[in-house]
């Protein structure tokens, strides 16, 4: 706001004043009395704030925030052109296991996720993560075993995602990434409850937010949770990290001649019954115009490439182009 003039308080109406802090030292001395002067402030010629097209599109993204561990000058020098400013990374439980027989491969989490996410968050890209739990327990597979109903099996699977989220949080914070875990149902001793505005504020402060426990409801997958959280926090894309290079026209494990698809429409996924995401998740993305990038988590550099909007894997519901947004 610019200082347009210094005028006596008595000459101003309350309707023309913005809430300003009075300056006690700004006094005009006369021979008979003192008159207190206030600053008449205006944000523009017509008294209204100028519209910011980026903040109108993403009202919770602040353009004045400096990434953590960066000074203002360093942040300015590190700005690059990226396709997306706020992304949601969906990490499947199977991808966390890697090629190991154990439930979690520490090398996958430390090397492929934590360090690559750190490299982009320090440049100002806001990253949220939804983590699956299939490496520990998959509810749909256990439903019906030993009298276990589907709802109970899904709740156990949600607890498995919390275990993965806490492991991922500890790994990220060990290399200096501020992280928060939010769960869909309350587990106050180990994580925050999911609160949309709090999650957005964490992202604005440069923290990585890990969403666990899916949607908090049975019969919904973590893919659906990823699409839902992406829409709620105004993220621009879902990045689905898997253990394959992208979407193929056939199962590459059975058909070595299967071709990797570069781009797809939402309707292609449903009509061709491609095993990308469940129908609820892909429909939610389609209704909210959220593109989905499917890529291989196990290849070094793929996470940072996907977050930066570089061509990697398969893009659903969008087109690869060079029109990148400045961070």
Structural write-up:
The chain is of the alpha/beta class and 327 residues long. It has two domains: 2-42, no CATH class; 53-326, Carbamate kinase (3-Layer(aba) Sandwich), CATH 3.40.1160. The chain contains eleven helices and 14 strands. A nine-stranded mixed sheet has the order 8-7-9-6-5-10-12-13-11, sandwiched between helices. Strands 1-3-2 form a three-stranded antiparallel sheet, with no helix packed on it. The chain has a two-stranded antiparallel ribbon with strand order 4-14. A hairpin with a 4-residue loop joins strand 2 (27-29) and strand 3. The protein is globular. Keywords: ATP-binding, Kinase, Nucleotide-binding, Pyrimidine biosynthesis, Transferase. Pathway: Pyrimidine metabolism; CTP biosynthesis via de novo pathway; UDP from UMP (UMPK route): step 1/1. InterPro entries: AceGlu_kinase-like_sf, Asp/Glu/Uridylate_kinase, Uridylate_kinase_bac. It is an enzyme of class 2 (transferase).
Shape: globular
Give the ordered list of helices and strands: EEEHHEEHHEHHEEHEHEEHHEHEE
The CATH class of the largest domain is identified as Alpha Beta
Gap between N and C termini: 24 Å
